[in-house]
């Protein structure tokens, strides 16, 4: 042994990412933030080596991490059209709707009082933070909601999304046709009460009751 030579203690720790040097330290420990956006969506391998002052080197067992970065692709709005409203021969001009953007059971955003353009199309937009695939719940006051599923927000498509005919008689807005709705209809029997006048003939009557009866206990999506 040469006088004054240090033969113990860690002199250098090196960390490698996929075989390339990622970080080094002479203190025996390393703390460094990993920005996963610089990596591909795949499995990556970390290895570490430590060398002491005498030149002895050891290698730690490899550690693998799986990277899955959310897409940062542009989110494009989509056009939605209503196929129909039960009890009516056509969708009245100026009918407003609410579009709720969903990821599973989580509400991402709600767009209220959307109005159609001259072609009856409603524009639903998305946030840059929304996932690639979302659902859209379409709601019109007085009707049960419907859900458009598995929509790709990264597709710039000119094809309209078609919401199927909405089921009528949800007068109280709880998304179920039930006794509460019947009570509203019954209270305004033979009256000009727009909320319960499903077919919009100016009178709450047996025609509206027949629709409610047919849809009793149905729920929206």
Task: Tell me what the structure shows.
- There is one protein chain.
- The chain has 221 residues and is mainly beta.
- The chain folds into three domains: 10-66, no CATH class; 72-166, Immunoglobulin-like (Sandwich); 172-221, Dockerin domain (Type 1 dockerin domain).
- Helix content is 9%, strand content 35%.
- The protein contains two helices and 14 strands, in the order ββββββββββββββαα.
- The longest helix is centred in the last third of the chain and has 10 residues, at 206-215.
- The protein is elongated, with a radius of gyration of 31 Å.
- The N and C termini lie far apart (80 Å).
- 18% of the residues are buried.
Percent strand: 25-35%
Rg over CA atoms, rounded to whole Å, is: 31 Å
CATH class of the largest domain: Mainly Beta
- Uncertain regions spanning at least 5 consecutive residues: 1-6
Whole-Å distance between the termini? 80 Å
State the domain count.
Answer: 3
Q: What would the CATH topology of the largest domain be?
A: Immunoglobulin-like
Helix tally equals 2
The major pleated sheet works out as: 5 strands, antiparallel
| Class based on secondary structure composition and strand pairing | mainly beta
Shape summary: elongated
Overall pLDDT? 91
CATH architecture of the largest domain: Sandwich
Helix content: under 10%
Q: What are the secondary-structure elements, in order, as H or E?
A: EEEEEEEEEEEEEEHH
The beta-strand count equals: 14
